Structure formats: structure tokens, C-alpha cells
Amino acid sequence: MFARDGYPTMTLATVVTAGVFYLTYTFLDHWFSYVIYTIFAILWGIVIYFFRDPERTAPSGQNLIISPADGKVVLVKEIEEEVYLKDKATQISIFLSPLNVHVNRNPVSGKLEYLKYHPGKYLMAWDPNASVENERADFGVLHPSGTKFFFKQITGFLARRIVYHIKEGDELVAGERFGMMKFGSRMDIIVPGNVEIHVKEGDRTWAGQSVLGEIK
Asked: Based on the structure, what is the number of domains in the chain?
């Protein structure tokens, strides 16, 4: 299964690759043509592979916080969140390499009360300043328990586009797809003090499956 947001890019890659193959076959009768075939076949395969969208089954438990992204936990630290939670909180940052699945899933169920898109820079996704300086989209969700959660899609040096299909007022369901980030990026999940953290720096996560924490 492939991400619907990747259809235009995959179509373009397929058309370009087919065109190159046709022109090479027609006009280049030389051993070097096989090098061209190989290079463009690999590039086409990378594009198709990037937009894969495997099915995932979310763990049961209304109080669980589920990873919104595949990747590696690069940061777990206490912060002062001043936008939505407006309190002390814990930030969990997940770095997505270009080889990870880039489809994003809701980390918790609840009402989307806050959404804001910010244009910005394209610092490396693991840079601590990326959370506030890079292009990003911020989401604030009110969980049925009354607990607030804040999470961010953040572009990286390679990722130049973020996509989301949710809007303020929507009722989110944990584990369901809500968007994607294209070609390497970062995801921040900011949780309040009544959440017990289940991950540490260096851990691998899978969107819609890995448990990041639990409401106490």
C-alpha cells in the first residue's frame, strides 16, 4: 500500500523513468545505456519505496500515547510548553531518516483544539533549534480524560513539505493516519506531567504501534 500524498511524485518519477528508458533505447546504442537504465531504475525504486504505507494495528488502551512516526527517539527532556499546554512538560523528539515510513498517525484520541502552520528554516532535523525555527505544523489535542497533548510535524534539511488532512474541531482517533512529511524530517510529541514515559533516547518507534507513554 502507498500513501495517497505520494501519488503525484510517484507518477512523475514513473513518467520520467519511462521517458529516459525510451530515449536511451532509441538513440543510445552503447554499453553505457545499461548504466543509465540501472541508475534510473534505482532512483525510481527509492521514490516508490519512500511512499510505502503499511497497515498498522494500534495497541488497545485509551490512556496510551502512541508514536505518530517511524524513526529514532533523539530527545527526551523536560521543557516549559507555552503555546498549548502552558505548563511544564516532557518533549519526545523522533527523527525520521529518508528510509523510514513517513506517513504520520495520531498519537492520541481527542478533539483537535489547536492547529497552526509555521513557515521557517530547514535546519537539520536533529538540531535542537529545529523545533522552533524550521517549517512546521503544530497540533493541540484535548484527550477525553481532559489531558492536553501537543505535537509537531517539523521539516528537516531534506524534507521540504509537510502534509496534514485534519483541521481544528476534528475528533482524532489514536493510530489513524493524518498526514506525512516528505524526505526526512522530525516529529515532536509534548506530553504533560501526568504521563509516564515508556521510551528513552535511542529507542526505535513505529507509527501507530509503539507506545510512548501512558496517562497515569
From this structure: 2
Residues linked to residue 139 through DSSP beta bridges, in sequence order: 115, 151
- Residues 115, 32 within the same domain: no
Q: Tell whether 98 is covered by a domain.
A: yes
Establish how many alpha carbons lie within 13 A of residue 175's alpha carbon, considering only the half-sphere containing its beta carbon.
15
Strands (E), the chain: 64-66, 71-81, 87-96, 103-105, 110-118, 136-142, 148-155, 162-164, 171-172, 177-181, 185-192, 195-197, 204-205, 211-215
Annotated catalytic, 185? yes
Residue 54 phi, psi (nearest 5): -70, 150
Catalytic residue among 67, 109, 185, 210: 185
Least Cα distance to 12 among 38, 48, 36, 52 occurs for 48
Residue numbers of the domain that contains 75: 64-215
Per the confidence metrics, is the pTM higher than 0.90? no
Q: Is 176 helix (H, G, I), strand (E, B) or coil?
A: coil
Query: Cβ of 5: how many Cβ atoms within 10 Å?
Result: 20
What is the full per-residue pLDDT of the chain (216 aa) written as tens digits?
A: 888 888 999 999 999 999 999 999 999 888 899 999 999 999 999 999 989 999 999 998 899 999 999 999 999 999 999 999 999 999 999 998 888 998 999 999 999 999 999 887 666 656 666 666 678 899 999 999 999 999 999 886 555 578 899 999 999 999 999 999 876 688 999 999 999 999 999 999 999 999 999 999
